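Q: Hi! First time doing this. I have a protein sequence and I read that you can turn it into a structure. Is that right? Here it is:
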Amino acid sequence: MTTYAVTAATGQLGRLVLDALIALDVAPGDIVAIARDPRKLTELEPLGVTTRASDYGNPEALYEALQGVDRLLLISGNQVGRRLEEHTNVLDAARGAGVARVAYTSILWADFSTNPLAEEHLATERMIADTGLPHTLLRHGWYTENYTSQIPQYVAQREIVTATGGATLATAVRGDFAAADAFALVNDTADEVVWELAGPGWTMQEFASEVSALAGQQILARDVTPAELVERAVAAGVPEGGARFGAQIDASIAAGQLDAPSEPLRLLLQGREPLTMPQLVAAAQH
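A: Yes, that's right. Below is the predicted 3D structure, encoded as structure tokens:
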């Protein structure tokens, strides 16, 4: 019997991973759901999984939460600038508790990406390698929901303004990434596995066309320079640091760093086609 643990299990991705593990016929009793808030963990009781409360900032609680765990999915923390410290706590606890394998949700092309989020991900990957534990690096592309969640804003503004330079984004929905993560957690056996995970590609112009069809009015895709994007964001009330951060992300997209073949994702989905951007936009009208 193998015991699987998922951190951030009550979050948007973690909750879907639990469902995906059960869909792979992992017994709920062999799944440990770890999350910070005990109240949210009670919502998982109907699944029949074991729940353990622990915070990335609490090494002692993490050690206790990982007792008896064979394979761990470390879902990256969401506090940019604190991720490395938090991930260090998890990995130290995993080694101390005798975890045999670690999987980690990283970012696409982490080893050369200029995306400002990549630095902490790459540092975590190197730290995982230094543990000597067999591991899987699940390098996620962007979530399609990063954009579809903003459709009401785009419709209100009647334009989508980015500095992506017309580049392709190979995004996937959280559910597909979760299913891929679960399959790799259960089935990977090599000492070091790296998955560059991306869905079917699309451009902002194509996205604007889909949103226009949904809204019944023309929504323009307007491409600007990173400097112009910062200026527009600051004028709209975004702090300059946040505006520059967003512009750096768009610059990395323009450089092709959130584009990749979708075959690895299809493989982990056991041949199933990933949900496409147009399908997700169409679903927004229901």
